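Subject: Interface between my chains keeps coming out wrong

I've been trying for a while to get a sensible model of this assembly. When I model each chain on its own everything looks fine, but I need the whole thing in one frame so I can look at the contacts. Pasting all components below, labels as-is. Any help appreciated, I'm running out of ideas.
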Amino acid sequence: MTFTTLTFGLFLALVFALYWSSARLGAGRRGQNLVLLVASYLFYGWWDPRFCGLLLASSVVDFVLARAIAAQPTPRSGRAKLLVGISCALNLGLLALFKYFGFFVASAAAALESLGLQANLPSLTLILPVGISFYTFQTLGYTVDVYRGRAEVCDSLLDYLAYVSLFPQLVAGPIERADRLLPQLRRARSFDPAAARDGARQMLWGLAKKIILADHLGEFVEQVYAGPVVHASGPVLMAATLAFAFQIYCDFSAYSDIAIGCARLLGLDLVRNFAHPYFSQSPAEFWRRWHMSLSTWFRDYVYVPLGGSRRGPARLWLALMVTFTLSGLWHGANWTFVAWGAVNGLFVGVAARAFQGSEAPRLGPRDVPPSPTAQASVGAGLAVLGRMLGTFALVCATWVLFRAADLPQAVGIFRHMALDSWTLRAWAELQHHGEFLAAFGPLLALFVVAEWWTRDREHPLRDPGFDPRGLRAGAGAVEPGRGLWSDTLRPLRWLGYTALLWLTIYLMPDEPGTFIYFQF
Amino acid sequence: MPRFLVHALIFALVQLGVLAALWRSCPDDPDHYMAATVDKHARLRASAASPRLIFVGGSSVGFSIDSRAFADAPGLELEPVNMGLNDGLGLAFMLGEVQGQLRAGDVVVVAPETHLLWTGSQDDAVWAVLQRRPASVACLAAGGPRAVADVADQGLHFFARKVRCAAHQMTTDRALPTIYRRSGFDAYGDFAAHRGLEAKPEAPLERRWPTPAQLERDPDFERNLDQLAGFAERCEAAGARCFLAWCPTRAQSFADARAVYEHIEAQLRERVALPMLEQPSEVALPETDFFDRGPHLTGAAAAVRSQRLAARLEAALGE
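Reply #2:
Try treating it as a single job with all components included. I did that and got this:
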């Protein structure tokens, strides 16, 4: 049951009705959380009911371990350390078993074979449960936070299970921290019309991004990148890589938009996951704006414990490279992802050294950095634009590693880009994709303009002045004041939503594309 | 909340209005390929003088069975009804179309496209059929709630095509020249419009085949085998006899996927226990025997294959 299906639409309508009815009938937070829990397990079991057992087991183990950690008379005692170690081992073991076992065995076999040794290593065929990378990180983060005293231990199994399995973010994030989401689930929620409206709009924006751009860009990318041998010319590969950069952004940020919008309809505020990453002016800034919930997770549980930037340059490099390489591996059991992570670590480190003093290589935001604003002078504006384009070019280069089927293909693509881009014939090959580029080039340009124009907001359809942060504290979102935008222009806005909705339906591809991050 | 709900309702009504306008601008084509389902069901339900020989499958059955070979076979005395229409309907739907209509003495030949053994309904085929014959909604029951949900999801894509069709209708008023129409079917339900035509020089439709290991743990494969086994039991209970046949395939594709075919054949023999009228290798045919990019035999190849099948069926019924 993916977000772009009619089944999900009907499911959400039913959950919405039951959830808010339970609140009206006085069932309180228990009733609401029970509805969420049942709905979430139904949503997850839709893929394969067997996955639910794994999710439940993983959740219950961490619930019990966290309670045991909190029950220790001395914080961070040896016994507490042992318990948090067990949690790490179990969660990472689960990931290793389901996601990486085959990869490591195959890699070890290949390495032995290259040494002339015939290895008969054990093989295990397991289905990768959807979303396992996300919820294991969520539960692991919870036990570590309880150990560190950063999150209160949850004494209600119902609340905790609802937190781990919350269906909008269960399968592909955002990865929610216990200290942010659990308090919201531990009190009864009341309906907030401003938040619900904003949620519905964010969902519409996400759907449009996914269907109009991501799915269609994906078809072009697949044509060019399909097959292990690189046939396309350098310019075509560059165009496909550029298309992939927007495909993955529109795909994943669309998922996050729909998840956040969906939660907002239920009166919950999920963490922001993307903050216009392609307007970043350095690789480090890019990582503060891209998949922010994962970046902050790695920052808090890997980078900082490894010493971060506090123990000298050598330790900083070690922390950076380990963090980024692990982040790459998290994305998938393939050497391309490992290389992608390592190259990103390198870029972040080198860029930080090159611009030393201006910015330390932080991973993930405490606060999202402000978007670039209009500069005082033309020269400064051009400098900002240059930094943005430079960063974007570096990011696109790393996407080649991410998208390629294997490292030889990635090397072939880089070689073609470098060597086969200097002739007219190479550029003329773009004509074969002229129809696609003519149709979707302007749409993409329009999308970039819309993002730039509304870069001070979480999504372009948000009312200026709306602020959802009050939801977290149970105080309700700040509604924009009545005025031109909210009242007078309503028919015009509705016309805009209607046009966007029908354009989305019109451009819906025959073969619906799944969300890229489902595979992770 | 009431204000929010009222706004949501008004917004939904506006969209319904747009939908109605679009629907009206793309009127239903009575000669649409999928409208042949109406004729096929009418024939299935018509009282026949002799027991029926019902063919079940997708378009490969429609194109690659020549019912005349069975109608003319002196030893068969069966009235052919070819239900083959489109593989996008999925196996459960195809079986559901027939299983409520079985009579004692009927003979059923099930020859689904091979990939239907591990996939469900696809595209928006079911919606296209339901638009033409709403009563077919009952056929969805055979697939269970998940199949119904899958069909609901395909509705969005059917709907998207409808919107595109409306846009096309508004900008041009030109019918596409095609033989794939309701009128292309003959009285038996065979697709006959391609008989005598030159084969189209089109690249074959490529499908990604699973490995035997993937099939072994594929819940859809399990489910489809169970459905076939259940259908066999219903046939027996109704006093009808049921046989399996294979979907024609390109020789090269068959060679590439031979291991999968062997696995499927073994599973069918073990789990479904329906007699097979032919071996997969017998329908692994040269490219020249295919009419277009699908598993659709030319008229001549369909006649040869049907005569062979008719002889096998005659022998099997005589046992």
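Reply #3:
Confirming on my end. Chain A touches chain B through 26 residues (CB under 8 Å).
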